[in-house]
Amino acid sequence: LGHSGTNYPGPSQSVIKAESACNKVLYMLKDPDHKQYRRDVLLALIHMFERAEMWVEAAKSTERFLEEFASDAKYPFANGEKAPTIAEVHLSLGHMYKRLGAFRMAVNKFYDALHSTLSVPKDAAFDFKHLANQAMIEIADTYLEMEDYDNAIKFFSRLLKVGGLQEHEKATVLFKHAYSHYQRAVTNERIDARRKQDPEQKDIRREYEPGTAPKADYARVKHDLRDYSFRYPESYYVPESYYLLVLTHDALNENAKALAQVQNLLRNSPYHPEQIQKAQDHPERKINQAEVARMIALWNFWKKKTGNYLANEFYEDGDYFRALQVYQALANIDDEPSWEIPLRYQVGLCHERLGNVGEARRIYEQLEDTPADQATSKNVKLVIDMAKQRANFVGWATSTDKLLLKASSRN
Question: What pLDDT, in 10s, does the model give residues 163-174?
Answer without folding.
Answer: 788 899 999 999
